[in-house]
Amino acid sequence: MKFETVIGLEIHAQLKTKSKIFCGCSTEFGASPNSHTCPVCLGMPGVLPVLNKKVVEFAIKMGLATGSVINRYNVFARKNYFYPDLPKGYQTSQFDLPIIGPGSVDIEVDGKVKTIGITRMHMEEDAGKLVHDSLDPVSHVDLNRTGTPLLEIVSEPEMRSPAEAYAYLKKIHLILRYLDICDGNMQEGSFRCDANISLRPVGQEEMGTRTELKNMNSFRNVQSALEFEVRRQRDILLDGEQVIQETLLWNPDKNCTESMRGKEDAHDYRYFPCPDLIPVQIDEEWIDEIRMSLPELPDQKRSRFIQEYGLPEYDADILTGDRDLSEFFEKAVLNGAGPKKTSNWIMTELLRELKGLSVTECKVTPEYLGSLITMVEKGVISGKIAKTVFLDMMETGKDPHVIVKEKNLLQVSDEGELKALVEEIIAAHPEQAEDFRQGKTKLMGFFVGQLMKKTKGKANPQMANKLFVEELQK
Fold it and tell me: Are 281 and 316 found together in one domain?
């Protein structure tokens, strides 16, 4: 029997506001436990929440960026459940009247573009964090995260493979980063994902019994967890048994899922409108104002890089896969460097030396990289020496012109000087010279190599080749 995989994702993106969604407490990560709290986010009796306008603005931005419906009238609701890190005993969220309605994003897997529907997006507050003691059987509660603003993005169950889920997750992450409304840090919990997955016989319209996957703190873990769950559910169904609806945790150490609890349905949360918050009403003028402030989005920038700079699709994918990297590239090109050569330098030398760090942490400025590439294009230094200069730039952050001058690395392009050395090398290697004349043209590399040794790599390689050909053919 063949089965079809059905996957839907619920993404929680922590919005980059300085204060929490309903109070003025800081959202800064890493503070000492329970230091960023107040009576409002602690849920003390008699306090009243006040909505952070920036949260609404960020939600609208994401809605516009995904072509979604902006619900000008939306309502906050209370989602009731008990958990030790939820001080109020309920979470202030949105239910039947969310701020953002249907939308979609395009993903590409194996060269095929597919549109994935977005069901809704809604604003809500985050819960706190339990810190489990590894030495004693106790858990500590840190409520600093309580009340930080989240945008929950719920997809349609339209992904048919873990690879599609991976691509969708990356696309949402990329759009959030381009909009600069979420830092996207999965390790710090500011970008989290829950996945609902089920299997059904091919051709069946009715959904199978789903499980929910949690505790996935990387893109790779999401894909690995879904791949494992596909295999697990398939084995259960092939054995004639029923999949149990439950919430599962992903254990990356054992590479398997583990049962956490039975999965609740929406009615278990007893949603009702929050009496402490009035409905949110958004006027069209504000939406238009936010629309005008949107940056160039990933798909638009990718198309422009291909058309304007003549880059291959592969290069454009890499460069636009990170907003900071795309801006670095454009600044280098504006400094006079050729687009394709700049792309090559970024994708090989720069990304290799960054070793996973952000380009914003790099000591080499885009202007300096552009200058270095221009020096190579103009024949001021050779490509080999440029790589040495680049390593020095990565370490010191110096201007390449300063490094070249300090280390006397200017390329030797004086024809008279090089010709004398070429004649000297040919005279010292008569056998190789004769073999070259007899048709062993690969020996050109040997002769140029000898010249590079004598000039410490500073000889102009194009001129060197020309002079050797002329002298060896005499």
Answer: no
In this prediction the pTM is 0.86
Nearest to 347 by CA among 300, 295, 397, 312: 312
Residue 37 within a domain: yes
Given a contact cutoff of 8 angstroms between Cβ atoms, the answer to whether 55 and 247 are in contact is: no
Same domain for 262 and 127: yes
Of the chain, the end-to-end C-alpha distance in Å amounts to 76
Domain boundary among 352, 372, 406: 406
Range of the domain at 344: 296-406
Burial 398-428 (b: 16+ CB within 10 A, else e): bebeebbeeeebebbbeeeebeebbeebbee
Asked if residue 149 and residue 228 are part of one domain, the reply reads yes
Q: Please state the length of the chain.
A: 474
The SS3 assignment for 92 reads strand
Question: How many domains, the chain?
Answer: 3
Q: What is the pLDDT along the chain (474 residues), one digit of tens a residue?
A: 899 999 999 999 999 999 999 999 999 998 999 999 999 999 999 999 999 999 999 999 999 999 999 999 999 999 999 889 999 999 999 999 999 999 999 999 999 999 999 999 999 999 999 998 888 889 999 999 999 999 999 999 999 999 999 999 999 999 999 999 999 999 888 999 999 999 999 999 999 999 999 878 899 999 999 999 999 999 999 999 999 999 999 998 899 998 887 765 656 889 999 999 999 999 999 999 999 999 999 999 999 999 999 999 999 999 999 999 999 999 999 988 999 999 999 999 999 999 888 999 999 999 999 999 999 988 888 888 899 999 999 999 999 999 998 887 776 665 676 778 878 888 888 888 887 888 888 888 888 888 878 777 777 777 777 788 877 777
